[in-house]
Amino acid sequence: MLSTVILPWVHYVAVLLMVGALMAQMYLLKLSGVPDAVRSIARVDRIYGIAALVVFVTGMLRVWHGGKGPDYYFHNGAFHGVIGLFILAALISVVPTLRFIRWRKAVDAGALPAEGEARKTRILMHVQLTLIVIITLLITMVAHGYGVH
């Protein structure tokens, strides 16, 4: 039951939480002139990071303890694409995270983020969201046998 019901459920809930947190951050960025919104972005970013970690861990557990086994996944080119895009999204997310930490400290000191920097951050977040959408397509293809050598 753990590998067939609970593990996929936790994985899917974490994906939804990750996307929801990213969407909340994008909305809060529109309010970057409001100190409380800037503080909230940093808190929501922690949720995003934790959810992404849970997605990765449960995804790897599903590889090792799922029905198809690791050989199926590790010999699937589309699966390699999933992992590569997930890592790319994680690397991209570092830039906004560092900005949010810096902004929170600046807001506590009485300054707000520059509009140009907020706009650039929104673009990075749109890229992350786009990567997540592509990842969901690729992993669906993997589940249906596409990408097998």
From TrEMBL:
InterPro entries: DUF2214_membrane. The chain crosses the membrane at residues 6-27, 47-65, 77-95, 129-147. Pfam families: DUF2214. Keywords: Membrane, Transmembrane, Transmembrane helix. This is DUF2214 family protein.
